[in-house]
Structure formats: structure tokens, C-alpha cells
From TrEMBL:
The keyword Transmembrane helix applies. It comes from the Bacteria. The keyword ATP-binding does not apply. This is Peptidase C13 family protein. The lineage of its organism: Bacteria, Pseudomonadati, Pseudomonadota, Betaproteobacteria, Burkholderiales. InterPro entries: Peptidase_C13. Pfam families: Peptidase_C13. The chain crosses the membrane at residues 46-64, 76-96, 108-129, 157-176, 183-203. Keywords: Membrane, Transmembrane, Transmembrane helix.
């Protein structure tokens, strides 16, 4: 027993464990543990009833938080109960690990109650902080609430796990009256048994959501019988209407993808860019849009991995692969794992990630590529898409979010700076990128956001191909209009 200073500290449930105020004593212990304050060996009163009460409190807090965020017009989501209840076996496993490590098996329930109480304080304390930041006056406080909110969105999950492990490890050492060197083994055990499961399992604790309201807006159009049969015909007819290039000139082909149906900004942006390219860069008859939006289901094919592969294959068949160039524009939300969001309520799509996109492009046989990905964390696409014949531009670095994705907006921050402003002043795709960077930084700084840090990669062969294409463009061009 190298870590112990006493030999008989096994905690026995006392009558206090069954009294109503024992619950509040345990909450106080959880609060002290979360604040890294001292915990005495008799400050936790353990019983199965106390575990159940803590789970019920977590359920009430989660439901209240969801209701506050969503409003009364929503629906109950029973699946969230599974996410909440999953805390219990994870906490019991972690408590067993600590109790076994220090040979205190009879302390398992005490440790479990303490860890669950600490988890509640940390989880809902951080959630309360996020809500508080939304209501603090940003203009008066120099936008620091918004900046802190962005950092919490980015690092909050990691911060929660680190805080939870350190707080529970320190509290366990104090509760068991161990010497401080025991803190190291306790931290290792809790990292493996308490934190690691949350990094490997997707846990959704949502109990109240407005998903049905969104579904009512998005799903009916797509689920109508005529639309169900119209969509394949739309894709086939638009693919068939695309033409090959003529003569010895470089032909630019355009494919625009608006991935997320829940906000109009992606559809608006892709429509604008397609119109610009048809007018400015000669892609009329050589361009196609794939759009997820209920307003466009009668005019445009939906965006999916399958429709993208069919479109790329068709372009690959039409183009002179040694001469012509593809401009692929993707606009949507993005995730930490660098997946590009393809979402239309009621539909199940294959995942579009950097490796999948590279595979699709290679399979199409398209050699000369200009690829622009406008999404959060889109910098994760750069390495996978690199070739000597490829220009890749992204709206954000691999670990950064991009901004401007509101339903009312006509452009994201990147889309406005790059397409509407910079590319209307130059024919050079790379020069437009350089021109857009300062404008993006200014907008983000004014809103108190961290810089999205857009990325660019220029293959050694594509630069010359694009310069040749630029030289063949007409000198007098009309800026694109919506």
C-alpha cells in the first residue's frame, strides 16, 4: 500500500446517506471537487439512491438547457436519455479503476457518487458560462464574450475532459487520504477509464429539439412523389446538356456544390458563383450545380456523394484531360474530423471527407483541378487533394472555423471576400485569394472572431495552365450579377 497513510478507511454508508439533505451535501462535495478544493473522507454520503438522484438532476438540467435554447415550440427526444444514462457505467468503471488501483474496493460507490456530482458541476457550469456569454454586452466589453465563446466552441470539449480528470483525481486522493504521489496514478486511471470513453463514443444528450419544425420546412418538398421521380431526371438531363470544349482553347468546367439544406446562404453563394463563371470565364454550357435546399429541388439536382461522382465522371468524359481545367466549388458546414456536410432532412448521404473527394476526382480522370472548399475546418482537405496539377483553396485552416453561415446572408465571409469582391477585380484565382485575405481578417476582427486562416496550395504545373487560361479570356468582362 505505498500510497496510503491509513489502513482502515473503507467508507460505510451512514444514516445520513438516506436523509434528504445528503443529496445537497454530495452536490457541495462535487462543487468543491470541481473547484479543486479539499474534500474530507466523510464529505460524501454514498448510496444507490444518491446515484439515482444525481442522474435525475442531470436529466432536469439537460432538459431545462435544451428548452431554454430551443423554446417551447419543440419536441421531446427520448434517445437523449440514453446519452445521459451512459454517464453512469462510465463513472462506475472509473470509480472501480481508482478503487482497485489503491485497493479500496468498498470505496467504489463513494468515489462514483463524488465523480458523478463533479461531472454535473463541470458540465452544466460550462454550459451556463456559454449562455452567459451570449447575453453579455459585447460592444461595451470590447467583444471579449464573443471571442471567449469561439474559443469555448473550439476547445470546450477538451477543456471539460482535462478539468474532469484533474478534479476527480485530486478529489479521489483527498477522499481516500492518500499521499500526493498517488495523484499521478489516479490521473492515469481516470484518463483511460473516465475521459477516453467520451472521445471514442458519440453521445447525444439532447432531450428537447426543434427538429420536427425544421423537418416540416425541409422534408415535404423532397418527399413529394413528383419530386422523388423528378430528381434523377434532373441530374441526367443536366449532365446530358453539358458540352465539350471547342478548338484548341482551354475550356474551364464548373461544378458547384451547396451541401447544407437548412440555410439558404450556401445555395445563394453557389448560384452567384455559377452565374459569375458562366459570364466571366466561359463556363456556360460547361457548368453544373448540385444544391441541397427545399427551394431548389425542382430546378437543381441534390448534392450527394453519388451525384458528385456522376457529375465528375461526366466532366471527365467531356474535357480534354491534358488541356482543360475543372473548377470545383464546395460550400457548406464542416466538422472537426474534416467531413464536409451533405445534409437534407430525411435523406441519408455517404460521408464526404478529403480522402473520399480525392478518390472521386482520381476516378473521374480529371487532371487539372482548381478546388475551393468553403467550410469550417476545410484546411483538412489540402493535404489529401495536393497534386502537381491542382490548386486548392480553403476558407479556414484545418483547426479553425470559418464564419458568415447565416440563413439571411447572401455570402459567407470567405465567399463574399473571394468571389463577390476580389474575383470581380482580377482574372487570377490565386491573386484573388491574396486580395481576399485582408478583407476576411477585417470582418472577423470586427466581430471579435479568431482569424479563420484560409489556406492555399499551388501545384507546380497548375500555375502555368491557369496563366495560359487567363491570357485567352476576353479583355472586357461584365461583373457577375445575382
Amino acid at each position: 500500500m505505498p500510497f496510503s497513510v491509513t489502513d482502515n478507511l473503507d467508507h460505510q454508508p451512514t444514516p445520513l446517506s438516506y436523509r434528504p439533505y445528503a443529496f445537497f451535501v454530495n452536490l457541495k462535495a462535487g462543487l468543491r471537487a470541481a473547484c479543486l478544493l479539499r474534500i474530507s473522507s466523510d464529505s460524501v454520503h454514498a448510496s444507490a439512491a444518491q446515484l439515482i438522484l444525481l442522474v435525475l438532476l442531470g436529466t432536469v438540467l439537460q432538459f431545462s438547457a435544451d428548452l431554454l435554447q430551443t423554446g417551447r415550440d419543440g419536441m421531446f427526444v427520448p434517445y437523449g436519455l440514453g446519452g445521459l444514462l451512459l454517464n453512469v457505467p462510465i463513472v462506475l468503471l472509473a470509480a472501480w479503476g481508482v478503487a482497485s488501483c489503491f485497493r479500496r474496493p468498498r470505496q467504489l460507490l463513494v468515489l462514483a457518487v463524488l465523480m458523478l456530482a463533479t461531472m454535473l458541476v463541470i458540465d452544466y457550469g460550462m454550459l451556463f458560462l456559454e449562455y452567459l456569454l451570449d447575453y453579455l454586452p459585447g460592444a461595451i466589453l470590447r467583444n471579449w464574450p464573443a471571442r471567449l465563446k469561439v474559443r469555448l466552441d473550439r476547445y470546450g470539449f477538451l477543456l471539460r475532459l482535462v478539468w474532469l480528470v484533474l478534479a476527480c483525481a485530486l478529489a479521489s486522493v483527498r477522499l481516500l487520504r492518500l499521499r500526493f504521489p498517488a495523484f499521478g496514478p489516479a490521473t492515469v486511471v481516470l484518463s483511460l477509464l473516465l475521459a477516453a470513453p467520451f472521445t471514442q463514443i458519440y453521445i447525444d444528450r439532447t432531450l428537447w429539439t426543434a427538429a420536427r419544425e425544421e423537418s416540416a420546412q425541409l422534408a415535404p418538398e423532397l418527399q413529394k412523389e413528383d419530386i422523388f421521380y423528378l430528381q434523377p431526371q434532373l441530374l441526367q438531363s443536366q449532365l446530358a446538356s453539358m458540352r465539350a470544349g471547342e478548338g484548341s482553347r482551354i475550356q474551364l468546367f464548373f461544378l458547384g456544390v451547396a451541401g447544407y439544406a437548412g440555410q439558404d446562404v450556401f445555395m445563394k453563394e453557389v448560384r452567384y458563383v455559377r452565374a459569375m463563371f458562366d459570364r466571366r470565364f466561359g463556363t456556360a454550357g460547361h457548368s453544373l450545380m448540385l444544391i441541397n435546399n427545399p427551394k431548389s429541388v425542382r430546378a437543381s439536382p441534390i448534392a450527394s456523394v453519388s451525384s458528385m461522382q456522376m457529375s465528375l465522371n461526366r466532366i471527365g468524359q467531356l474535357m480534354d484531360r491534358d488541356r482543360d481545367v475543372l473548377f470545383l466549388y464546395l460550400s457548406s458546414h464542416g466538422s472537426h474530423d474534416h467531413s464536409f456536410t451533405l445534409e437534407f432532412e430525411g435523406m441519408q448521404f455517404f460521408i464526404l471527407n478529403p480522402q473520399a473527394l480525392r478518390t472521386m476526382l482520381d476516378a473521374s480522370g480529371i487532371r487539372n483541378r482548381v478546388i475551393v472548399v468553403s467550410a469550417c475546418y476545410s484546411g483538412g482537405f489540402v493535404d489529401a487533394l495536393k497534386t502537381d496539377d491542382t490548386l486548392v483553396m480553403t476558407a479556414a485552416a484545418a483547426d479553425r472555423t470559418s464564419f458568415g453561415c447565416s440563413n439571411e446572408a447572401d455570402f459567407t465571409y470567405f465567399g463574399k471576400a473571394y468571389f463577390e469582391e476580389a474575383l470581380n477585380k482580377t482574372d487570377s484565382f490565386t491573386e484573388a485569394f491574396d486580395m481576399a485575405l485582408p478583407a476576411i481578417r477585417v470582418r472577423e476582427s470586427m466581430q471579435g472572431f479568431d482569424n479563420s486562416n484560409p489556406q492555399i496550395f499551388i501545384g507546380k504545373n497548375i500555375a502555368g495552365r491557369l496563366q495560359e487560361f487567363q491570357r485567352q479570356l476576353p479583355k472586357n468582362k461584365t461583373p457577375a450579377k445575382d
